[in-house]
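Structure, all two chains, one model.
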Amino acid sequence: MIFHWKTLIAVLLMASSSHAETLKMAVTTSFYNSGLSEILLPEIAADLGIEVQLIVVGTGQALRLGQTGDVDAILVHSRVAEQAFLAAGFGTHRREIMYNDFIFIGPIDDPVDLAGASSAVDALQRIARNGASFVSRGDDSGTHKKELSLWEAAGISPSGAWYRAAGAGMGATLNVASGMNAFVMSDRASWLNFGNKGDLVLLYAGDPVLFNQYAYIPVNPALHSYVRNDLAVLLETWLTSEKAAELINEYTINGESLFTFNAVSQ
Amino acid sequence: MNGVAQGLWDAWWLIITFDADLYEIIFLSLQVTVSAVIIASIIGLPMGAWLAVNRFRFRRFVIAVLNALMGLPPVVVGLFVYMALSRAGPLGGFGLLFSPSAMIIAQVIIITPLIASISHQTIRDLWAEYHDLLISMNATRMQRIKALLWDGKRALLTATLAGFGRAIGEVGAIMIVGGNIEHATRVLTTAIALETGKGNFAFAMGLGLVLIMLSLLVNLLIHSLSRTERASTW
């Protein structure tokens, strides 16, 4: 051996060398897949000197990570679950940052005339009535919760061979839908960024009920002494700043804007 | 098929232009897996030898369990390590969840039984050969284990490389405990899973080829460094 083995081990075991202050934030797959984080994170690092590490999970797991204090802040999109999280005292407060919308995707020949639906509920009823294949996230994420609430509003409890729960993130679910040429509900950002569209196209959007609000919640430092609430507060100030508003509103894919900034200054 | 060719070309371009992100991912993959293999070898190789030269009451049972543990499902290991390292878990105070250290811990648990089992089988055969000699020389138990490990080193290399092979291609456990954080815990396998999720199949395949080449390269390197398959040695 040319080099000494002890040196080798020492080099290999050196944990990731310490750098700027890091903040761990759990975010939803739909936010991450939008690609917006790749615009925001370098700016945050430049302005605040904070390296934001994203843990990309469904809203359900993001809230769990916040509950156990494994992350310092969360950015999710499921108001009911967020309010339960706050009511249990796991977070300090909820701050709305931006929104986009959910859309219905389906095969280009549109066998159930989804494009002619009058509302989101009508769209789901058309799919169920015809027993057209529909792929659900099935992973307790914000998108999944939204979908379930829409089925409930439509008075349908979806089950049967036409209803497939993928149990996966937005991208993986879109892959399944693309492979099966099935209908699927997605957030607009994930869809625009998705690289395997196959024969699927956007068929229905625009019902106000499909509004998708993202909110930022710092994890409660009173429960976990190691949570970096100081950094979480700095990040909140930045995320609600005019600079963030500009970056978020101006982020487009193929000329379509993905998010609308709607944080109110306090 | 055009997409596949494009993806392979993209991946190849990233390799030859020394793309910083790609090399960071490759380096972290190597750092995590090589660390895990070294630790698992330090535990597993002597453990296998010890089991070969010792006779004790539950020996058969211990060996059977060790062999069974070779098939530990990584995703379950990942879940246990996650629960243990989570802030709410027994080892939460170290704050190791979502760090490379957590990934190393998970891989050590996955590959130590594999390395120990192969080591045990190798040493057992060697021990049958060396038994009378070492006993007649009145070698202590430690000396026996050392002699067997040293003389079996070529075969033990296979055990180590098998451990490396299992660890470098593992995704279930490190995805759970590492979190696939960009610039922190993203390795080749989790990057492939991510790109597949985005529908970027071609690029994911390119990364897959990088992973296979890396694995081949490490194996060839180790073999050439340790001078196996040369004239005077075997």
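The interface with chain B takes residues 1, 9, 12-13, 15-16, 22, 24, 29, 33, 51, 53-56, 68-70, 168-172, 174-175, 178, 193-197, 224, 226 of chain A (CB under 8 Å).
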